[in-house]
Amino acid sequence: MQITRSSIATTKGPADWFTGDVYIDAVAAAPAPSRVSANLVHFMPGARTHWHHHSLSQTVFVTEGVGLCQRQGGPVEVIRPGDRVLFEADEVHWHGAAPDRLMVHLAINEGDDEHDVVVWMDPVTDAEYTAHE
Ligand code: MN
Question: 20 to 30 A Cα–Cα from 42, which one of 3, 10, 16, 26?
Fold first, then answer.
């Protein structure tokens, strides 16, 4: 039997980037020349990212709960475990938990010296967040 111990503390998603309570566990952060990183992100009910975009796109894979996501100009979509979402490069969007359910997703990002992993924008308002109801 071999157990690889977790050694990196869970971090709280900062209020500059998220609304509500979000907890982030680092999964992968390989050094250059790799530019991929992965995080397991736990959104408590009602929590969501601010509007943002990724210079080299982002894939999220839902592992638990019920979530919501939206690209700018599109409808709010419900996402569930097993769903995979590709946010294309520079596509403005948000993602998070449903109002009454937590949501966990694996987020796979890319970035390097010339490409920001994420560019943060304004919070998702309650009116925007509840537009699916
Ligand atoms: Mn994103």
Answer: 3
79 CA distance to ligand 1 middle (Å): 14
Q: For residue 14, how far is its CA from the centre of ligand 1 (angstroms)?
A: 15
Has this prediction a pTM greater than 0.90?
yes
Give which of 26, 30, 34, 24 is closest to 8, Cα–Cα.
26
What per-residue string of b and e applies to 56-73 under the rule 16 or more CB within 10 Å gives b? bebbbbbebbbbbbbbee
Domain covering 11-132, topology: Jelly Rolls (2.60.120)
What distance in angstroms lies between residue 5's CA and the mean position of ligand 1's atoms? Answer: 28
